[in-house]
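User: I'm curious whether this sequence folds into something compact or stays loose and floppy. Could you predict its structure so I can see for myself?
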Amino acid sequence: MAAAQRPLPARVAAAQRLARGCWSAFWDYETPKVIVVRNRRLGAVYRTVQLLILLYFVWCAAGLATLSHRYVFIVQKSYQDSETGPESSIITKVKGITTSEHKVWDVEEYVKPPEGGSVFSIITRIEVTPSQTLGTCPESMRVHTCHSDDDCIAGELDMLGNGLRTGHCVPYYYGAFKTCEVSAWCPVEDGASVSQFLGKMAPNFTILIKNSIHYPKFKFSKGNIASQKNDYLKRCTFDSDFDPYCPIFRLGFIVEQAGENFEELAHKGGVIGVIINWDCDLDLSESECNPKYSFRRLDPKHVPASSGYNFRFAKYYKINGTTTRTLIKAYGIRIDVIVHGQAGKFSLIPTIINLATALTSIGVGSFLCDWILLTFMNKNKVYSHKKFDKVCTPRHPSYSWPVTLALVLGQLWLFKPHGLAPSEQMADTFNQHVRQRPPQQDSTPMDPEGLAQL
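Assistant: Here's the prediction. I'll summarize afterward.
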């Protein structure tokens, strides 16, 4: 006689039941059930949430539209296809004359580089070290000081210095200090530099900024110069209200619009950004797409270690066959012209996508109200009992499926027998099936515990 089969351990049996339950639940189908709850406070919450969502997608509060990104149909124009970052070209030209203590300066001398690109510098102050020749001389006192030759190692090179050390400790150009002797362009910069200020006439310099943009997606191009006569640019100056298509700016106007003091900026140097913004709604006429200018300082003026702007260059020549140069440390105002923008035009695809997103988001109101009902309402158990029903289909096939299929598909002609009308045959089949089914009791009462009072 076969031995009795040993029962499975409790954990294994529980795991099997869980696996069967998960596998059975995988094939379940969920369909929404509509329940009307007559509660004014809950209804007010539901309609308020719906209204806020609609306002969000149709229009946005003015504060949000100005302080941050604009998120909505009318303000952001979500019904449009958009393109950011236009293709852009920039040509600049500076005009003006200024003077220092002993010299007149023209554009060729105080504008660097002279090509007229989107980034250029206007020199406003210089420190000149004239007549430098290759030889040996004391190093700058800011690099290193010494007391004897032992402090200066021959052949040593300091990356912050001006040349190669010779191994001698020599007196500085002036004073009682000593520095290491170096082989370099002599005298070094700190030893004989002379400062000259060029900013006296600089506020009256004029800057022409010629800009043209192109949005390839929409095949749209435009420039920032008005279609006027040839002498138009000789007599116009930019004015945001009366002459927005004259791209000629005074340097003093740019610095003032950036909120800076010209005298201080000219002495220490700095970087000013000229931002040109092309935001174009191409559903409107071309005349509505206009450049908007803004100005601001780009270098951190409140950080002493990184504020200001300067650079060096040299001019070379020969005296009695000896190569000589003049070293110039230039302080100035650097202008960075920055172009950005966005163009938009109506397109059906983004319109459909954003409409679908808006309609889907309205369902947040139902989710919030369901959460309130199931969590905080006094009759939350009654609501849960009515909201969630579980219907199990019989394992054996029912004879009512032809009727159900006919009702769903509307194919009533399948039941048309010998001269009997389709509606009569379906009704007869349905009534016969109902008579064969045993009566079933509804699992839930009609109004359990005062559902109508929710």
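Summary: Residues 16-79+347-392 form one domain. The CA atoms of residues 97 and 149 lie 50 Å apart.
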